[in-house]
Structure formats: C-alpha cells, structure tokens
C-alpha cells in the first residue's frame, strides 16, 4: 500500500454508538471510504442495512445514502477494519466506573490495543472519546509496546463536541477542530481528513495531548456549571418572588454570558455531562487540583438536588404522599430530540415516585423503548392523553417541543385533578392557568 499521506486516507471508526455512527457517516459524506467497527453484532447488522439503532435526526438518511453509495461499511471484525484503513478513530464509550467518580477506560484501552496490534501498515490512531487528562500519554506507551515491527504509528487526540439531537450538523460543521499531539505528518493527514470543514473556515487548534483532552472535559464542565448556576439562582428567585425565566433572558443579552444553558429546571443528565464532570472531579483530585474538584462537586450536588426538589414538589402536590396516586409523566429522554435515557433526570424522578407507590405513566415521543429497556417495571403510554388520563398530577420532565401544543382545556377534561408541574419551565404558564390548571414551574413564586 501507498505511504501514509501520499494518497487519500481510508478511515476506520471503532465504536459505532451515538458518536461513532455519526462520525463514520459524516466522514463518508465528506468523500472518504469508511469502515465502522463495533463489538455489538446487532448494532453492526442494523447499520449495515442502513438502520440506525437509536434516534438521531438526519442520521438514518446519511447512513442509508452512504451504505448505498458503497463508501460506508460496518463490521464486527477489528482485524478487517484495521487492515482497511489508514486513520483509525477511537469512538468507544468512557462511562462512569462502578462505585467511583472515575471514568471506566477499559473500552478505550481495549479498542486502542486491538487497533495497534492489528496494524498491517503505517497509520494514525485518533482518540475521539472523552477521556481524563493523561489517558493519551498512557495509551501511547501501550501502543509503542505492541505495534508490529516495521510499522510506524502515531496516537493523537481529537475530542468531539457534537450534541445529541444535532449530531449530524455538529459533525459536518463543527465549531472548532482540536488536534492534540500531532507531528507534521499527522497534522497534514488530519487537515486532509477535515478539509471540508476547514474550507468553510472552521478553526483548527493545534495543541499537546493533555490540552486536547482537557478542552473537551472543561467545555462540558463549564456547560454543567452554567446549568447549576441558574438552578442556584432559581432557588433565590423562588424565595424572593422573582422570575428566573425573565432573569435568564435579561442575563443572556450580555454576550459574555449568553442565553444558552441558562434554563432553570430539572438539571442536566445524559451519557456525557454527569460522568464527565465526575471524571474531572476524580482526575483533578488525583492531580492535587482541589479547586476544580470542589467547584464541580458543588455543580454535581446542585444538579442532583434538582431531581429531589421535583420529587418533593410531586409529593406535596399529592397532599404529602404519592401512594396509589396516578402521576402522568411527560418526557423520559434526558433532553429533547434524543432517545438517550442514560442518567436521565426524567426517568430518575419517575422511578423514584414509582418506588414510593405512585402509579406512574410515562409518555415520551421517542424514548419509550430505550426507557422501557432500562426501567421495564414502569408503565409507558403512546400519547400525552394516555399518560394524563385520570392523573392526580402531571409532571413535565423533558422539554419536547410537542408539549407546547397541548390543548390545556381539552386535557383538563380527562385528568382527575388539573395539577401540572413544569419541571423544565418550557410551557406557557398563562395558557395553563387560564384553562383552570394549578400550574407550578421552578424558580418562580407559585401562584395561589
Ligand atoms: P455509546 O455507548 O453509544 O457507543 C460506544 C460503542 O462502542 C458501543 O456501540 C459499543 O458496543 C462499542 N464498543 C465498546 N468497546 C468496543 C471495542 N473494543 N471495539 C469495538 N466497539 C466497541 O457511546 P457514545 O455516546 O457514542 O460515546 C462514545 C464516546 O464519545 C464517549 O467517550 C463519550 O463521552 C464521547 N462523546 C459522546 C458524545 C455524545 O453526545 N454521545 C459527544 C461527544 C463525545
């Protein structure tokens, strides 16, 4: 085969979950020949037929297009994928370890090892997963020990900033491209890989490995801090009779602050923010960096306390106990436009109320089946109306757009009690109150 850098690189993507499937499809869209590899045969079988085994807007179309064009293949065979490609993206999971704040790095380590030991020609291993600072350096020494004789490889870090629900656009037109630990050769190859976004002006940040790892982790830490900040202010608003929504709008006009991630409510969840700030708490602690650890500990605690706050509001709305009360829950996904229920605040609240003896009925436009897999004992409905029928209280726990078009007057006819808690501050309170509902948001003084 040709020398690395002499011909258009071929791409492998190891791990085809939310990140990897999107990245693989986007690379094919940019004109590369791509092989996605995953250890889960069901995932590979589905993707090979152009079926995306999770909900991500625009992704099924992109996968189908490029499976059909022949530029995108999926396999369970890491040996085949490694032999095929020149640039190997590591996109496997880095979940929170059991019983610890630390990240579980076993998947990243195993994926990197299996690429390195199966290299058949020179190539670049590109870490994309979110990892604690120092991981890349450790992986480099592992790779150096197992790469076959006569083959040269580099390991660099290129963290990913995509948002679920907007993953396709975020991957095709990223805000920035961070490349950590490159040489002249790997920089040139990566500039070719990202030629399309670079051509439209996407900034490229070249840095060392630890900086690249930390850019990603601190971006998530900052976003999490913003959410916990507004939730802390929301508590003051509620106590003082102020309105946190109006306050956030006013704050947001300051471009140093910005309006995004300033919605008071049930707080953040998902497969990234919670585990990423915990991993940073852990890693910063190991490094003796106590300030980041203590700041983010507070961020995590404030965030988790929002879930308890909403549970308590539901109990209070039911007169002190939810036992045998019927609770309609709107939303299961950790945020709208995804079916991801990893560490979902919505499901966490629903499950807690179920454990306290409530009859909880959940409706989510996309996440019912993923939620059902995680919490099979909860009850799932196919519509807002079904979830609301005979309810003593309705909880809005994910801010899906379709909840804004609920006819409050019509819904009032089918509930037992017209009581609603908008834990995402996403509904029009005046509309609901005018239809006779007792409506409560977070961070606003309750209306008697
Ligand atoms: P995911 O669980 O959806 O996907 C991980 C995939 O890797 C799974 O399909 C799993 O089967 C596969 N896998 C595990 N070990 C493997 C191995 N040795 N060989 C081949 N496949 C293997 O996780 P995700 O949400 O895609 O996240 C992946 C990484 O990307 C994490 O580090 C995450 O923090 C980071 N990230 C995620 C997002 C996001 O929005 N989901 C955004 C940016 C960064």
From TrEMBL:
<comment type="similarity">
    <text>Belongs to the UDP-glucose/GDP-mannose dehydrogenase family.</text>
</comment>
<feature type="binding site">
    <location>
        <position position="43"/>
    </location>
    <ligand>
        <name>NAD(+)</name>
    </ligand>
</feature>
<comment type="function">
    <text>Catalyzes the conversion of UDP-glucose into UDP-glucuronate, one of the precursors of teichuronic acid.</text>
</comment>
<dbReference type="InterPro" id="IPR036220">
    <property type="entry name" value="UDP-Glc/GDP-Man_DH_C_sf"/>
</dbReference>
<protein>
    <recommendedName>
        <fullName>UDP-glucose 6-dehydrogenase</fullName>
        <ecNumber>1.1.1.22</ecNumber>
    </recommendedName>
</protein>
<dbReference type="GO" id="GO:0003979">
    <property type="term" value="F:UDP-glucose 6-dehydrogenase activity"/>
</dbReference>
<dbReference type="Pfam" id="PF03720">
    <property type="entry name" value="UDPG_MGDP_dh_C"/>
</dbReference>
<keyword id="KW-0560">Oxidoreductase</keyword>
<feature type="binding site">
    <location>
        <begin position="261"/>
        <end position="265"/>
    </location>
    <ligand>
        <name>substrate</name>
    </ligand>
</feature>
<feature type="binding site">
    <location>
        <position position="275"/>
    </location>
    <ligand>
        <name>NAD(+)</name>
    </ligand>
</feature>
<comment type="pathway">
    <text>Nucleotide-sugar biosynthesis; UDP-alpha-D-glucuronate biosynthesis; UDP-alpha-D-glucuronate from UDP-alpha-D-glucose: step 1/1.</text>
</comment>
<feature type="binding site">
    <location>
        <position position="38"/>
    </location>
    <ligand>
        <name>NAD(+)</name>
    </ligand>
</feature>
<feature type="binding site">
    <location>
        <position position="269"/>
    </location>
    <ligand>
        <name>substrate</name>
    </ligand>
</feature>
<keyword id="KW-0520">NAD</keyword>
<dbReference type="InterPro" id="IPR028357">
    <property type="entry name" value="UDPglc_DH_bac"/>
</dbReference>
<dbReference type="InterPro" id="IPR014027">
    <property type="entry name" value="UDP-Glc/GDP-Man_DH_C"/>
</dbReference>
<feature type="binding site">
    <location>
        <position position="216"/>
    </location>
    <ligand>
        <name>substrate</name>
    </ligand>
</feature>
<dbReference type="Pfam" id="PF00984">
    <property type="entry name" value="UDPG_MGDP_dh"/>
</dbReference>
<feature type="binding site">
    <location>
        <begin position="161"/>
        <end position="164"/>
    </location>
    <ligand>
        <name>substrate</name>
    </ligand>
</feature>
<dbReference type="Pfam" id="PF03721">
    <property type="entry name" value="UDPG_MGDP_dh_N"/>
</dbReference>
<feature type="active site" description="Nucleophile">
    <location>
        <position position="272"/>
    </location>
</feature>
<feature type="domain" description="UDP-glucose/GDP-mannose dehydrogenase C-terminal">
    <location>
        <begin position="328"/>
        <end position="429"/>
    </location>
</feature>
<feature type="binding site">
    <location>
        <position position="94"/>
    </location>
    <ligand>
        <name>NAD(+)</name>
    </ligand>
</feature>
<dbReference type="GO" id="GO:0006065">
    <property type="term" value="P:UDP-glucuronate biosynthetic process"/>
</dbReference>
<dbReference type="InterPro" id="IPR008927">
    <property type="entry name" value="6-PGluconate_DH-like_C_sf"/>
</dbReference>
<dbReference type="GO" id="GO:0051287">
    <property type="term" value="F:NAD binding"/>
</dbReference>
<feature type="binding site">
    <location>
        <position position="164"/>
    </location>
    <ligand>
        <name>NAD(+)</name>
    </ligand>
</feature>
<dbReference type="InterPro" id="IPR014026">
    <property type="entry name" value="UDP-Glc/GDP-Man_DH_dimer"/>
</dbReference>
<dbReference type="GO" id="GO:0000271">
    <property type="term" value="P:polysaccharide biosynthetic process"/>
</dbReference>
<feature type="binding site">
    <location>
        <position position="335"/>
    </location>
    <ligand>
        <name>substrate</name>
    </ligand>
</feature>
<dbReference type="InterPro" id="IPR017476">
    <property type="entry name" value="UDP-Glc/GDP-Man"/>
</dbReference>
<dbReference type="InterPro" id="IPR001732">
    <property type="entry name" value="UDP-Glc/GDP-Man_DH_N"/>
</dbReference>
<dbReference type="InterPro" id="IPR036291">
    <property type="entry name" value="NAD(P)-bd_dom_sf"/>
</dbReference>
<feature type="binding site">
    <location>
        <position position="130"/>
    </location>
    <ligand>
        <name>NAD(+)</name>
    </ligand>
</feature>
<feature type="binding site">
    <location>
        <position position="342"/>
    </location>
    <ligand>
        <name>NAD(+)</name>
    </ligand>
</feature>
